[in-house]
Amino acid sequence: MQSTDGTNTEVNRQILDFCNHLAGSCQTTALALSDSEGSRLNEKAAMMALLIIKDFPPRLRSYPRTVEGKNVILLAVDQWIFERDVDRGFLGEALASVLVFPYKACINPDYLHQHEVLLKKRLILEVLENMALSSPELSYRMHIQPEYFMYEVMLNRVRLFPPQAFGVSHFLSGNAPPEKVEHLMQGYREALEQLVKSGQIRIEKGFIIMSDKFIADSKSSRVRIVNISKNAPRALFSSVFGLVPQIVNFFTQNTEAFYKFQVFPWKRDLDSHRNFVNPQKYVFVPTSQGLVSLADRADIEAFASKVLSEGGYDRIKVEEFGGFLNDLYLIRAYAGAQEKKILVKRFKDWGSLKWFPLSIWSLGARSFAVLGRTRLEREQAISELLMQKGFNVPKILHVSASERLVFMEYIEAEDLSHAVKRIALAKDWQKVDKDFATITHVGELYARVHELGVVLGDTKPENVMVAPDGKIFLLDFEQASRGGDRSWDIAEFLYFAGHYIPLNEEAKAEAIARAFISGYLSGGGDVACVRRAGTQKYTRVFSIFTLPAMLRVMADVCKKAVKDENPKVP
After folding, report:
1. Distance set, CA 1 to CA 18, 23, 33, 106, 562 (Å)
2. In what order do the strands lie in the sheet with 290-293?
3. Helix (H) or strand (E) holding 346
4. How would you classify residue 484: left for phi > 0, otherwise alpha for psi between -120 and 50, otherwise beta?
């Protein structure tokens, strides 16, 4: 048995000799040694040696040793078991994870590299599936640099078993030599190339982007269950079949080493993971100002200072701008007589006191996204999608995911509720023809949004802005999603509008419904969705806001809608 990587140190020689002894008459498939060279904890890190033997009778056995003062834990494993661990996580990657961390291929490097790529391909897919599950809307817009997978995979294993950080602290802290990093990245790059060929991802300007089909498939309940089910055995086997018994065996046989381990401030050093590279610094989302890393921690003051320094503004004011379920702020930047306004939305988690009235109100008709992080991701992702498709939406200027902040363009316009109020109070209907035309146009826009497969989720008139030049802006997408209940969008717009119609003005409620539905259907909307919006499932939800007479009139217009519907204004 000869080493193929050119190493001839005494430690490696003795390990090779011991492996020869263990293999006996069996065929040795490969030998990999962990490489902790460069780690600041290298002196205390035990060297892992993985010996893969074909038809190894004990199947799996550990052999703690001290070689030239170096703690060595040798794992001898049957080839069949090792390959199943690579292919499907048979032992939670307790064995295969040697290929995730830096290692030296002492015997049969081609075999080890082949299985390293297979393992990393599977782990990349798991990471991407989890991203799609945890960020179902934002995942369509994510731009990922390849380094993300290296750091995310290593950190996931360190979280399960923190002492693994001993040998890779230089990698996790971003202090490893570039050639070492590139060597570890090579397996990921090859795995990513295979995923590009299979159509699961694409690469644009060096960024990995998940395909729409891959994201849609990742949202299935089967993928969710499979991914969750992998966590338990991974944590179990990483400790039971991985390092714990070997370390315990080793230290019970070596009192001096056990004492050194006890006095070594390993917990304090592992706490330094706060200085580890944040994998999310390699994940970006697009804004109108370019890509922004999810690791960005800019708060309102930091962003305001950036605006001040880059835009030539000499003073800035930040003022509260209202908000109940979210905090809203307005940044005013001045350069002489010129003023620039930026709206800031902070997405708060909806606590039980805020969430309970919403859940009761919509019970059986719709569920709401509650977590601030989830709502922020929806706001950013759907806004960028609609802008890309030609809709007028406020530009997203910056996103600080860690602070749950979205900085966006301030739109100088009035919201559509003003038009509805003018109709409600009008004596001469001809004077509000323009307002009816706007409502019809909004119906067309909603139909076009639905045609994209997007449901907005919060379509009350206040979330439509009408600029002085007549340009219509859609906003507030924190409840939006791909797929969902289109009838809810129609019902919420109409019945919220009906809230502004006073008693004995049913004709105006009917005219508003006809104007909106006409636009929706002419824009390609589904008449079945309109009719469904008139059912009791939706009207009962809005009965606490809108007079029963207005609900009944608008619901009747919905239920009787036909494809060639035209607005009828008295």
Report:
1. 11, 10, 15, 10, 81
2. 201-204, 207-210, 143-144, 283-287, 290-293
3. strand 338-347
4. left
Report the C-alpha gap between 219 and 210 in whole angstroms: 13
> pLDDT tens across 194-237, in order?
999 999 999 999 999 999 999 988 877 565 555 555 554 444 44
pLDDT band at residue 564, thresholds of 50, 70 and 90? low
What residues are paired with 330 via a beta bridge? 319, 343
Find out whether 374 and 401 touch, Cβ atoms under 8 Å: no
Q: Is 68 left (phi over 0), alpha (psi -120 to 50) or beta?
A: left
List of domains in the chain: 10-280 (3.30.460.10), 296-409 (3.30.200.20), 414-559 (1.10.510.10)
Whether 78 contacts 87, CB under 8 Å: no
Give the sign of the dihedral formed by CA 524, CA 212, CA 396, CA 310.
Answer: negative
State the DSSP string of 474-534: E---TT-EES--HHHHHHHHHHHHHTTPPTT-HHHHHHHHHHHHHHHHHTT--HHHHHHHT
Q: Which of 252-256, 341-345, 511-515 has the lowest mean pLDDT?
A: 252-256
| Dist. CA 496–CA 93, nearest whole Å | 54
CB 380 within 8 A of CB 141: yes
Confidence of residue 163 (pLDDT cuts 50, 70, 90): low
Query: What is the SS3 assignment for 1?
Result: coil
Rounded Cα distance between 254 and 40, Å, is 23
pTM of the model: 0.79
The pair of three-digit structure tokens given for residue 369, joined into one six-digit string? 């996204």
CB under 8 Å to 409, separation ≥6 — which residues? Answer: 288, 342, 343, 394, 395, 396, 397
What DSSP element (H or E) covers 322? Answer: none
Residue 248 has what pLDDT? 40
3-class secondary structure, 270 = helix
Place of tokens 């969710």: 224
Q: What are the tens digits of pLDDT across the range 374-431? A: 889 999 999 999 999 999 999 999 999 888 899 999 999 999 999 999 999 998 888 8
- Residue 135 DSSP symbol: S
For residue 330, the model assigns a pLDDT of 92
Strands 326-335 and 481-482 turn out to be unpaired
Q: CB atoms < 10 A from the CB of 351, how many?
A: 9
